[in-house]
Specification:
Elements (H helix, E strand, L loop, with lengths): L1 E2 L7 H26 L1 E3 L2 H9 L5 E5 L4 E5 L6 E5 L6 H8 L2 E2 L9 H32 L15 E4 L14 H15 L1 H7 L6 E5 L6 H12 L3 E5 H4 L6 H16 L2 E6 L2 H4 L10 H16 L6 E7 L7 H4 L6 E4 L5 H12 L10 H7 L5 H17 L7 H13 L10 H20 L6 E5 L10 E4 L10 H22 L7 H16 L13 E3 L8 E3 L3 H28 L1 H14 L1 E3 H9 L2
Parallel strand pairs: 2-5, 3-6, 8-11, 8-12, 9-10, 10-11
Antiparallel strand pairs: 1-7, 3-4, 4-5, 7-9, 13-14, 13-17, 15-16
Helix pairs in contact: 1-4, 2-3, 5-6, 5-7, 9-11, 13-14, 13-15, 15-16, 17-18, 17-21, 18-19, 18-20, 19-20
Bound molecules: adenosine-5'-diphosphate.
């Protein structure tokens, strides 16, 4: 599908330019032109010309303190200053000049009116018409659609074309595709549904974290159904002036109805669809826009062929009126891809790059656990860039693995020089994590340990790889995870008898996990299955808010500390018991800077 570019500059911009040009013309250029024709001469020249009777008309301008006169033939206009000359009148009479003739023609008031007001207005209107026609054509690809201007929607129209996005381009997300396939079928064959009396939902809400392919899915529905696709972001509706957004919504729906059957896609609908909370000083413009959207959705009769798809990553913030039956009554979750999904997405994007035989997508997908579709696309692209940078022509497994690290931890920091002692501490820290993970049966095996600093600020890291999909985690697994996170600091304490700042991220993660176990997963004896916290932002980082009394909060804090402390002790115990291995592997890492999981396990299993 081709996307047609939106106009860059608003019309008002062109109006202002024309206005400035006209003002300059009127005030500066016109008088300048008039004055330019006059030649300034001395008084003696004037006397000489009167004596020679080479003078035609004379105009005495008392207020200006000047005399304007022409030569005999009237071809040139001269100007001279007035001086106290008692013979002036006689001199002029003798010369035969006609006095008081108007030399510099005063423009008639009508002409002035036409030049200064009517002409500019006509030019304005002309330019306005021309521009709007041009923009209109650009936007619709034809001369017969909407007129652009303030309050008009600037929905992009995706023209149908054979290379449109299809469901096959969206990898994974099988459940979402299945749900949307019904809509495609309806757009192909509405009669089948009408016969039975079934109504297609007017609106479908695609919810999920950013970068999981919501926009792609909406485009794919349009591509599969071979219908026009209107797309607009929620934030584009909200303008500075109240009422503009509502007018844009009206306009968008008008266009859509003309082009039905079609798909209207509203990205980031939470920008306009947020709950109206009736607070004083609320956002009037947004609420009016939302009201208009609700009205439009009610307004069109059933089965008129306009299907609205909307995407959001904050479904909980949407106004209930928007999600009630009859409006966005179908919700399609577009979740982060699972292992199989990740592998498929990698394959889809890898089609565009040249691959080496060594590439194992399953392994890459396992390493990139938790990555979204957009991140996976980025990983493939980073790998391709790295291939070019190193002067090869095929993307290898190593390129892909390195690019995962680039996407997760940033680029390698070339000029970060760690002191010897720092490097040693980082080695022990990372091996501490890895060793604690490996010694606890339930922890995932270590994939790679590195102490090469990254641009994200990480001085090193241990990459763990899940063997399969994990949907559930037991209490024991969570505890082991906390122990693994504290393993780095535990190793530092054990070996160097001191703590460093390197563990701040581990501490944050461990605390978050421990808090969730107590407040949300019901994993403490004391609080049993009572929720102390609710997730407010499921798809965007999972922010939480506490829903308990201040005393309980204090109790929770105590419990969290207790839990983390216990796991920290456990980690230290594991490392104490395996001190020799800790030293051996840390020294090896210190030498090599990066070691693989296999190398790690080899040393660990060596008797
Ligand atoms: P969202 O709208 O959910 O934020 P997009 O649909 O804009 O995400 O996806 C951004 C990019 O990520 C797409 O252009 C595509 O390259 C890639 N992508 C995301 N999900 C998928 C998927 N399931 N299959 C293939 N590519 C995907």
């Amino acid at each position: 599908m081709q996307e047609i570019k939106k106009p860059r500059k608003p019309l008002i911009f062109y109006y202002v330019i024309v206005m400035i040009i006209l003002l300059l013309f009127n005030f500066l250029l016109m008088p300048w032109f008039a004055e330019r024709q006059i030649v300034e001469v001395g008084y003696e020249q004037f006397i000489k010309m009167t004596e020679e009777k080479d003078i035609g008309q004379v105009e005495i301008q008392q207020e200006e303190n000047r005399i304007l006169f022409t030569d005999k033939d009237g071809t040139r206009i001269y100007e001279t200053g007035m001086i106290d000359d008692p013979d002036l009148t006689q001199r002029l009479v003798d010369s035969g000049a006609s006095i008081y003739g108007q030399i510099v023609k005063q423009t008639s008031p009508w002409l002035t009116l036409i030049l200064s007001w009517i002409l500019p207005i006509l030019i304005f209107v002309g330019i306005g018409q021309y521009m709007s026609k041009k923009l209109m054509n650009r936007a619709s690809g034809g001369p017969d659609s909407m007129i652009f201007g303030m309050g008009k929607s600037n929905a992009k129209v995706y023209v149908k074309s054979s290379e449109g996005i299809r469901f096959s381009d969206v990898a994974g997300e099988d459940e979402a595709k299945e749900s949307l396939a019904e809509i495609v079928d309806y757009l192909h064959n509405p009669g089948k549904y009408r016969e039975v009396g079934a109504n297609m939902p007017k609106g479908v809400l695609l919810v999920g974290p950013p970068g999981t392919g919501k926009t792609m899915l909406a485009k794919a529905v349009a591509g599969e159904a071979n219908v026009p696709f209107f797309s607009m972001s929620g934030s584009e509706f909200v303008e500075m002036f109240v009422g503009m957004g509502a007018s844009k919504v009206r306009d968008l729906f008008k266009q859509a109805k003309e082009k039905a059957p079609c798909i209207v896609f509203i990205d980031e609908i939470d920008a306009i669809g947020q709950k109206r909370d009736g607070r004083v000083g609320g956002n009037d413009e947004r609420e009016q826009t939302l009201n208009q959207l609700l009205t439009e959705m009610d307004g069109f009769e059933n089965n008129n062929g306009v299907i609205i798809l909307a995407a959001t990553n904050r479904p909980e913030s949407l106004d209930p009126a928007l999600t009630r039956p009859g409006r966005f009554d179908r919700r399609v979750p577009v979740e982060l891809p699972d292992l199989k999904g990740r592998e498929e997405i990698l394959k889809v994007h890898a089609k565009k790059v040249k691959l080496d035989d060594s590439v194992d997508f399953n392994k890459v997908a396992r390493m990139a656990s938790g990555a979204s579709g957009a991140e996976l696309a980025n990983i493939v692209n980073e790998a391709a860039l790295r291939t070019v940078r190193t002067g090869r022509n095929c993307v290898t497994q190593a390129d892909l693995e390195e690019s995962i690290e680039v996407v997760i931890a940033g680029y390698q920091k070339k000029n970060a020089i760690l002191t010897d002692q720092e490097k040693k501490i980082v080695s022990y820290h990372e091996v501490g994590h890895a060793l604690v993970a490996a010694m606890q049966t339930h922890s995932a095996p270590v994939q790679k340990i590195t102490i090469v600093p990254r641009t994200s600020g990480a001085l090193g890291y241990t990459m763990q790889v899940d063997e399969g999909n994990h949907y559930l985690m037991s209490q024991e697994e969570l505890e082991n995870k906390i122990a693994t996170l504290t393993g780095g600091r535990a190793a530092e304490e054990l070996v160097f008898h001191s703590s460093s700042t390197g563990a701040s991220n581990d501490i944050e993660q461990a605390t978050k996990l421990a808090r969730s176990m107590i407040t949300r997963y019901g994993m403490s004896e004391e609080f049993d299955m009572v929720a102390m916290e609710t997730v407010t932002n499921q798809y965007l980082g999972g922010d939480t808010s506490l829903t308990c009394s201040a005393e309980t909060q204090a109790e929770i804090d105590r419990k969290v500390v207790e839990l983390v402390k216990k796991q920290h002790e456990k980690a230290r115990k594991i490392l104490e018991d395996n001190r020799e291995k800790l030293d051996e592997i840390s020294e090896y890492l210190y030498e090599k800077e990066t070691i693989t999981g296999d190398e790690f396990m080899k040393i660990l299993e060596k008797k």
